[in-house]
Design a protein that fits this description.
Order of helices and strands: HHHH
Strand content: under 5%
Largest sheet: none
Length: 80
């Protein structure tokens, strides 16, 4: 996370639980076909906080992970 947005900002990225506690609603999706991110990879990232492309990297802020069930809910029912 030292490149791009920087380490400090990277530690605050995608703070799903904090946003949910504040009342935010989520509708997960993909950038397909303009970006190489599949729906299943996005759900895995939200639940595991690990890179789908480099899974050997350590999780990024694992306390922000969502349960698999909650991730699926945001990609299906909430997005509908």
């Amino acid at each position: 996370m030292d490149q791009g947005i920087g380490r400090r900002a990277g530690q605050r990225g995608f703070a799903w639980p904090e946003c949910m506690e504040a009342g935010a609603e989520f509708a997960f999706g993909t950038d397909t076909p303009t970006a190489p991110h599949s729906a299943l990879a996005n759900l895995w990232i939200a639940s595991m906080r690990r890179s789908a492309f480099e899974p050997d990297l350590p999780p990024n802020v694992p306390e922000f992970a969502l349960s698999v069930a909650r991730s699926i809910e945001h990609a299906t029912r909430s997005a509908a």
